[in-house]
Specification:
Elements (H helix, E strand, L loop, with lengths): L2 H14 L2 E6 L7 E3 L6 E3 L6 E9 L6 E8 L4 E10 L2 E10 L7 E4 L2 E3 L1 H4 L12 H4 L5 E9 L5 E2 L2 E8 L10 E5 H7 L8 H8 L14 H14 L2 E6 L7 E3 L3 E4 L5 E10 L6 E9 L3 E10 L2 E10 L7 E4 L2 E3 L27 E8 L9 E8 L13 E4 L1 H7 L8 H11 L6
Parallel strand pairs: 5-11, 6-12, 19-24
Antiparallel strand pairs: 1-17, 2-3, 3-4, 4-5, 4-14, 6-7, 6-9, 7-8, 7-13, 10-12, 15-16, 16-17, 17-18, 19-20, 19-22, 20-21, 20-25, 23-24
């Protein structure tokens, strides 16, 4: 399939099924209810996920603590892509998948994108296609298999199994599936809201060859810095009943922050002809603004380097993960003085065209988040903008070093993996 044919095919798949998503009051949720004792929002099966409360304290300053709703989903899902050679070129089996929170509803997703509740059919729906290639190791050659975190600001301790499995056998291709090369996927990653988050995180974990004769920091120094950053952070996280969360207000149709910031919890009714279950209701988190996520890059000794941050997010298993140079929602900081805003944020506004290496809108996971869109950027800087000796909590690393780290779990956060997927696939050239 050519990339031009893919565009027509994706539109055809969108027209082939009935899709509809409507906001509803919480009282119209089917199978979901607020617990009368805790206020937690959960499903009657006890599976899928719950919306609970979280109390977070960072350090000892009174201002460095907050409470918020959080998604608790302890089960590990599978995000898996099948790979197969055609005429000596590796292709990847991708899916046109509807998620209720996606802008435009349908985006390009992995071959399999399923929670344990989905592929064990708690919903009593149809089988998840191709799941056997990722649960039966004898069906193919594993290229990637690693546990990675999801959004640490909205999920509590959530991990997914990111997999790529190469097969030799013939694989029947369903109507909503197609084979694409890595280069084609890279081209699609230059398009707004086309390749979904789950595909991006898997592609970030794919082995890639980088020519890097010299890095500013050795791998050992990088790991030592990362370990010391984890050790110096004093982060305490306590799950609390949703009814006890301070600074948030529950109404008939949403749970909102008292100042209208951050995100809201809302509910939707979904019709989706292409899914294992064709209709359902569920809660979703809806951000209150568009995010900005960016890597700042420079060359040292002729080798591209990326400025990463040691990022604290309440839902991480190990306190911090490496994150982009900049990751924030401007509306959440508008009330603060300049000193309270994220470092390097000015590099992601008013960008000179010659410094811009990547600029695309990507949405986050549409099965849990509604219209959660961020502007993803890769921006070249100079010494005056991003010094060789960066502030505490930042370090220059090479793309190859990041690619090595993501073969292990919980080193690079999901936003960083989106940007790395653009580099791995050639969508961004540093």
């Amino acid at each position: 399939m050519s990339t031009g044919e893919f565009t027509r095919w994706l539109h055809e798949r969108a027209r082939a099924h009935r899709f509809q998503v409507d906001r509803i009051p919480f009282a119209h949720l089917d199978g979901w209810a607020f617990d009368p004792a805790t206020g937690n929002l959960g499903h009657r099966s006890g599976r899928f996920f719950t919306v609970e409360g979280l109390h977070v304290t960072v350090g000892t300053e009174p201002s460095a603590q907050w409470q918020q709703p959080i998604i608790v989903q302890p089960e590990v899902g599978i995000l898996g892509i099948l790979a197969k050679e055609f005429d000596g070129v590796l292709h990847f089996l991708m899916q046109a998948k509807m998620e209720p929170g996606n802008p435009g509803l349908i985006q390009l997703s992995p071959t399999v994108q399923a929670t344990r509740s989905n592929y064990t059919k708690v919903h009593q729906g149809a089988d998840v296609r191709y799941i056997e290639f990722f649960t039966d190791r004898s069906r193919g050659r594993v290229l990637v298999d690693v546990l990675q975190s999801e959004h640490g600001a909205w999920f509590s301790l959530k991990s997914n199994r990111n997999m790529i499995v190469e097969v030799a056998e013939e694989v029947p291709v369903g109507d909503d599936f197609c084979w694409l090369t890595l280069g084609q996927i890279g081209e699609l990653l230059r398009r707004d809201n086309t390749v979904n988050m789950d595909a991006r995180t898997v592609l970030a974990c794919a082995p890639a060859a980088f020519v890097e004769p010299e890095a500013m920091h050795s791998d050992t120094d990088l790991l030592s810095w990362f370990t010391s950053e984890r050790a110096r952070q004093d982060v305490r996280v306590e799950r609390i009943p949703l009814a006890r969360v301070e600074g948030w207000r529950r109404a008939e149709e949403s749970i909102d922050h008292a100042q209208g910031r951050y995100f809201r919890v809302m509910a939707v009714s979904v019709q989706a002809g292409s899914r294992e279950v064709t209709s359902w209701t569920q809660p979703l988190f809806e951000p209150r603004g568009r995010g900005v996520v960016g890597f700042v890059v420079r060359r040292f000794h002729g080798v591209p380097h990326i400025l990463v941050s040691a990022r604290v997010e309440a839902g991480f298993r190990d306190t911090i993960e490496l994150g982009p140079t900049v990751q924030f929602t401007p509306e959440n900081y508008a009330h603060l003085p300049a000193a309270g805003r994220p470092p390097f944020q000015d590099l992601t506004t008013d960008i000179a065209p010659h410094r811009l290496r990547y600029d695309v809108l990507h949405s986050e996971e549409g099965g849990r988040f509604f219209d959660a869109v961020s502007r993803y950027l890769i921006v070249e800087a100079d010494e005056s903008q991003a010094p060789q000796q960066p502030p505490t909590g930042f370090l220059w690393v090479t793309p190859g070093q990041l690619n090595s780290l993501v073969r292990h779990g919980h080193y690079l956060n999901v936003q960083g993996r989106t940007l790395l997927s653009a580099i791995n696939t050639g969508a961004a050239v540093l």
